[in-house]
Design brief:
The structure holds 2 protein chains of 2 kinds.
Chain A: H1 10-36, H2 45-53, H3 62-86, H4 92-98, H5 105-121, H6 127-137, H7 144-158, H8 173-195, H9 203-226, H10 232-250, H11 253-266, H12 269-274, H13 276-284, H14 292-324, H15 326-330, H16 332-352, H17 374-392, H18 398-415, H19 420-437, H20 446-456, H21 458-467, H22 478-483, H23 487-492, H24 496-512, H25 520-529, H26 531-534, H27 537-545, H28 548-557, H29 567-579, H30 588-603, H31 610-636, H32 644-674, H33 678-694, H34 698-714, H35 718-741, H36 744-762, H37 767-777, H38 783-790, H39 799-821, H40 826-846, H41 852-865, H42 871-890
Helix pairs in contact in A: 1-2, 1-3, 2-5, 3-5, 4-5, 5-6, 5-7, 6-8, 7-8, 7-9, 8-9, 8-10, 9-11, 11-14, 13-17, 14-16, 14-18, 17-18, 18-19, 18-20, 18-21, 24-29, 25-30, 29-31, 30-31, 31-32, 31-33, 32-33, 33-34, 33-35, 34-36, 35-36, 35-37, 36-37, 37-39, 37-40, 39-40, 40-41, 40-42
Chain B: E1 7-15, H1 21-30, E2 43-52, E3 55-64, E4 83-89, H2 93-97, H3 99-109, E5 120-125, H4 138-147, E6 153-155, H5 164-189, H6 196-201
Parallel strand pairs in B: 1-3, 1-4, 4-5, 5-6
Antiparallel strand pairs in B: 2-3
The chains are: A mainly alpha, B alpha/beta.
Chain lengths: ~900, ~210
């Protein structure tokens, strides 16, 4: 007979299986029938033996063989139950002998076990001897698959019959343990031997067969873990050494990996904590082909989930107490303490209990948090083991190592959420090992990269790791990040791609959580971590990847302007820009320092990305200026209980800071200007001037506007200029009040500023732009009139000044009419006329310096030109006329207007 | 039928790893609960003698490994099952979502002839855990069971022995019903091989 399983295809095997199942069914019916006939029960052994013969086959794969086994198990279960209920127990001894006369070894031993286990179950049976006899007899089958299933049957049938009390006559717990371990050793030998039989080309098939069979071998370890009366001491002294010895001795990769997995899974966590050193040490003796990574991570993960399960139980213990005793429930901490004390007491009791007394029935009482040092030393035991591995297993790859360290850091954070040194140690060691091994093939593979990423994202995933609470996911634990001294070095050692992806994750989380950055330390750490984005490493990588042509193509697509950065970059930089908004300190001076610190990180990079970042920084500075200004106002209030000295000191310091912040923003705008970002810098200066105007600093406002004009003069594109001049005019209009309230020189300065604005308006390149800018600029002189009528506190202007202003307005309107008239296209001219008409109507409503005649003339002028123009101006004109009609209803003066 | 011929009911317990299958069975069979977590590998059964309407039955509860890697020999032991218990953990939404998978898997692998009438029972375990941790609402589970053909549903705690006996009583009864049907079918198939007369002679001589 060939030792390995069959060469038949699965379909062919299925035919055999079905045939056998039929035979088994028929013989089972036969057996049951005979069992029911009084006095014929012995004859039932014949069909039983016949059906068992089906298990003699060598033609089936383990899975198919298992089909027969399951079916036969049911039949034998029936037989066993029948014998137990109906067979005189005094005769079982004879029957046990009798069935062993069966001709073939497989049926013989299955029947022996069936009767033997029934025999064991009756009172006063020589349990120990039966066990010994059965286990010895099973040696008779050395065919791996058949032997494994036979011994599995032995294990299943004896399950609830093994002695657990120390009754020397009928067997002791030790006998049971020996019985199972012997069976385990024999099964493992059969299982390993299968690997070395048959042709070498069938190696793959044998591996898959062995993997199918593994469960049979592992079931012995399950039995051991189910034995009542085994505590961790007994496990450590007796069980673990025996099974480890066999596992190490067999020197078989599949067996070693699988059986370690099983040990870790089937024995309780408490046992593992108690035997951690032994378990770890034994892994060193495994053959090199075994994946230590797999084994150690299984162990680490099991122990990590243990603490989670424990904390869940802890919560429950607390709530249960709270329910039964409300008073205790109020003081939660005390309750917890009491529970804890109770646990310690119970542990002490447990310690006294010995194996021989059997803590069996007390299993549920076994307390969870161990009194021994291992929970405390858990991290160190693993860590020193990993260090040891460096020496004894130099063949471990960087992929293995990083995966192990990631698992260890998860364990550490679960057990000791406040201990950051452990994690820092891992970072440092990971970095060392990474540097040593970074030139190996594995260093750049996806797995290694993933592991390193996971390690680096720990401060982000920390909460979800520790509490297992999904809702807490993705919150940055800044405390952890700040305490990791080696974080930055490990991060910097990564490829740009990894760095950028980590930085982005962290940035995203910071923003979505609206995390406040309140001190220098936090800002430094965060900006360091984000360095890869600030330095724009990604674009550099992208640029290296893309061909030059493609980059050029991109810039062409961006509307002719040279756009160095792809859209994605600006999105990412936008996120980075938002980061400045997270900076906050209740003390405005401290806040200012924080902003400067952040600014330094960005400025020192000297890359052109500042154009994405400075605007938001400038706006944060401007916000700060308003805060400082508000503070000064508040401190000056009499109600504040400051001494005069302190008051003036505070005000002085705030004013000094305010001034320095203005200098900073002005410098930032300059920098942008120097980078060629004229329009951006100009627009920012407008915002700056608005702020300085809002806090009433006309000097600054004036200076900023002079700066604005000088930049404006350099700008070439007319379209930009028009938009900017309109913005300038509208900004200047808002400044009117503060300048008129100011000194004489303020008034003069303002006059210069607005005159200049009209001058620029008239100098625009395109006529329509000129025209519109000029009539818009006319409003610059109209403020006094408006303010006088709406705001009683407005500066009273003397009549001559007002007359002067009105004259300027009319001048502007005249000029714009002239410009409109000089346009070549009549449609454009008429459109501009209609717009000027609207301006005139506005002035007519709000003041008196324009009379109805002026308007009527303009309307006539438009009408005469109307025939030659297209739709748009006509429509606009009609709407204007409708407006006049409505004004007639509410304003008598409009009766004079004709259209 | 001879009274000494005890009916054997085969019940398969399925569900994700860690939902408490082993604990439920231990509580039902031995009245015990252990805090210690031991993963189940392969398949293993516990038996318990029960009395259903004055009939003695033996219920054979098959505990299974929730983790696939521990089920290397396949699931031939599903065959001949009389009832299937689907377990999930009320604090673990995934384990609830997987119930459908386990149900279908069972029906296919066990080669059930009438999938629509085969008895299932669903257990939502770990209700002892604080309500705030619960992620699967009672209503949601009830609805699922209703949609799948009015599967009986129980919320249980293996730890505090809540609803265990009630749940397994229904399991046993439904399994018993199924077993009677199976037997009738079996007897039909092999009617000529069985002489029912013989059974009667032996009646009443069991102790």
């Amino acid at each position: 007979m060939p030792p390995s399983a069959t060469n038949l295809t699965n379909d062919e095997q299925m035919l055999l299986v079905n045939e056998s199942l039929n035979t088994i069914r028929q013989q089972t019916i036969q057996m049951k029938k005979l069992l029911d006939v009084k006095g014929k029960s012995m004859e039932s052994l014949k069909p039983a033996s016949t059906l068992l013969s089906e298990l003699r086959t060598s033609n089936l794969s383990p899975k198919n063989y298992y089909e027969l086994y399951v079916s036969i198990y049911d039949s034998l279960e029936y037989l066993g139950n029948y014998l137990k209920d109906n067979y005189p127990s005094k005769n079982l001894s004879n029957l046990y002998e009798l069935v062993q006369y069966a001709g073939n070894i497989i049926p013989r031993l299955y029947l022996m076990i069936t009767v033997g286990t029934v025999f064991m179950s009756v009172p006063d049976a020589p349990v120990k001897e039966i066990m010994k006899d059965m286990i010895e007899m099973c040696r008779g089958v050395q065919h791996p698959i058949r032997g494994l299933f036979l011994r599995y049957y032995l294990s299943q049938r004896t399950k609830n019959l093994l002695p657990i009390f120390n009754d020397p006559a009928n067997g002791t717990l030790q006998d049971s343990v020996n019985f199972i371990i012997t069976n385990f050793i024999e099964m493992n030998k059969l299982w390993v031997r299968l690997q070395h039989q048959g042709h070498s080309k069938e190696r793959k098939k044998r591996i898959s067969e062995r993997q199918e069979l593994q469960i049979l071998v592992g079931s012995n370890l399950v039995r051991l873990s189910q034995l009542e009366g085994v505590d961790k001491h007994y496990y450590k002294e007796t069980i673990l050494p025996a099974i480890l010895e066999q596992i190490i001795q067999c020197r078989d990769m599949i067996a070693q990996e699988y059986l370690f997995d099983v040990i870790i899974q089937v024995f309780p966590d408490e046992f593992h904590l108690y035997t951690l050193r032994e378990l770890l040490d034994s892994t060193i003796s495994l053959i090199p082909q075994v994946s230590l990574k797999k084994i150690l991570i299984t162990l680490l993960e099991r122990l990590t989930t243990y603490i989670d399960r424990e904390s869940l139980d802890g919560i429950q213990a607390l709530t249960i107490n709270g329910k039964t005793d409300d008073e205790e429930g109020v003081e939660g901490d005390e309750t917890a303490e009491k529970t804890h004390n109770k646990k310690i007491l119970e542990k002490a009791e447990e310690k006294e209990a010995t194996v021989t007394e059997g803590t069996a029935t007390e299993e549920s009482k076994t307390q969870t948090k161990d009194e021994n040092i291992d929970v405390e030393a858990l991290f160190n035991i693993f860590y020193s083991h990993f260090i040891k591995l460096n020496k004894v297993r130099p063949d471990l790859t960087i992929d293995d190592i990083t995966a192990l360290y990631y698992s260890l850091s998860k364990l550490s954070l679960s057990y000791y959420p406040d201990n950051f040194e452990n994690v820092d140690l891992i970072y440092s060691e990971t970095l060392n090992r990474y540097n040593e091994l970074k030139d190996t093939v594995e260093s750049s593979n996806a797995l290694t990269e993933e592991n390193l990423k996971n390690i680096l994202l720990l401060p982000l995933n920390f909460s979800s790791l520790v509490s297992n609470d999904v809702s807490k996911k993705e919150k940055l634990n800044l405390k952890l990040l700040l305490n990791l001294k080696n974080y930055q070095s490990l991060l910097s050692a990564q490829s740009s791609k990894v760095q950028v992806s980590i930085s982005n994750e962290i940035l995203k989380t910071l923003l979505s959580n609206k995390f406040k950055l309140e001190n220098e330390e936090q800002i430094e750490k965060v900006f360091q971590v984000l360095d890869s984005i600030i330095s724009n490493k990604e674009t550099i990588t992208v640029a290296q990847d893309l061909k030059v042509e493609e980059i050029n193509k991109r810039s062409e697509n961006a509307g002719g302007e040279v756009n160095e950065y792809p859209y994605e970059t600006s999105v990412k930089q936008e996120n980075l820009a938002k980061l400045f908004h997270l900076i906050y300190n209740s003390n405005p001076i401290a806040h200012s320092k924080l902003l400067s610190t952040a600014q330094a990180f960005v400025s020192q990079k000297k890359n052109k990305l500042t154009k994405f970042l400075y605007p938001s920084l400038i706006f944060d500075y401007l916000k700060l200026i308003k805060r400082l200004h508000f503070r000064i106002g508040k401190v000056s209030q009499k109600s504040m209980n400051f001494s005069p000295e302190l008051k003036s000191e505070l005000i002085a310091s705030y004013e000094l800071e305010l001034k320095s912040v203005f200098q900073k923003v002005s410098k930032l705008a300059d920098e942008l200007y120097n980078q060629g970002e004229l329009e951006l810098s100009l627009k920012l200066l407008i915002s700056i001037s608005e702020t300085s105007n809002a806090i009433g600093n006309n000097g600054f406002t004036n200076e900023f506007f002079i700066k604005i004009y000088s930049i404006y003069e350099e700008m070439i594109s007319s379209k930009q200029q028009y938009q900017i001049i309109m913005q300038l005019i509208s900004t200047l209009i808002t400044f009117y009040k503060s300048f008129q309230n100011g000194t004489n020189s303020d008034k003069e300065n303002y006059d210069l500023l607005i005159t200049k604005a009209v001058l620029y308006s008239a100098r625009l390149l395109k006529k329509p732009d000129q025209c519109r800018a000029v009539f818009s600029a006319s409003h610059l002189w109209f403020q006094s009139t408006v303010l006088a009528s709406t705001d009683p506190s407005a500066p009273s202007t003397d009549a001559s000044a007002e007359e002067n202003d009105n004259k300027r307005i009319l001048e502007c309107l005249q000029k714009s009419l002239r410009i409109a008239d000089s346009c070549i296209e009549s449609s454009v001219t008429v459109e501009l006329f209609v717009e000027i008409l609207n301006e005139c109507i506005y002035y007519y409503i709000h003041s008196n310096f324009i009379d109805a005649n002026y308007i009527n003339n303009l309307i006539e002028l438009i009408k005469t030109n109307l025939s030659e123009v297209d739709d748009l101006p006509i429509k606009h004109f009609k709407r204007t006329c409708e407006y006049i009609a409505r004004q007639k209803e509410i304003d008598e003066r409009f009766q004079l207007v004709r259209y | 039928m001879s009274s000494r011929k005890k009916t054997l009911l085969k019940v398969i317990v399925l569900g994700d790893s860690g939902v408490g299958k082993t604990s439920l069975m231990q509580q039902f069979v031995n009245g015990k609960f252990s805090h210690q977590y031991k993963a189940t590998i392969g398949a293993d059964f516990l038996t318990k003698e029960l009395n259903i309407d004055d009939k003695n039955v033996t219920i054979q509860l098959w505990d299974t490994a929730g983790q696939e890697r521990f089920q290397s020999l396949g699931v031939a032991f599903y065959r001949g099952a009389d009832c299937c218990v689907l377990v999930y953990d009320v604090t673990n939404a995934k384990s609830f979502e997987h119930l459908g998978f386990w149900k279908d898997e069972f029906l296919i692998q066990a080669n059930i002839k009438n999938p629509n009438s085969f008895p299932f029972v669903v257990l939502g375990n770990k209700i002892d855990i604080d309500e705030s941790k619960r992620t699967v609402a009672n209503k949601k589970a009830m609805q699922w069971c209703e949609e799948k053909g009015n599967i009986p549903y129980f919320e249980t705690s293996a730890k505090e022995a809540v609803n265990i006996d009630q749940a397994f009583d229904i399991v046993a009864r439904n399994a018993f019903q199924q077993e009677l049907e199976n037997e009738a079918e079996f007897n039909e198939d092999y009617s000529d091989a069985i002489n029912i007369q013989l059974d009667g002679d032996q009646g009443g001589c069991a102790c």
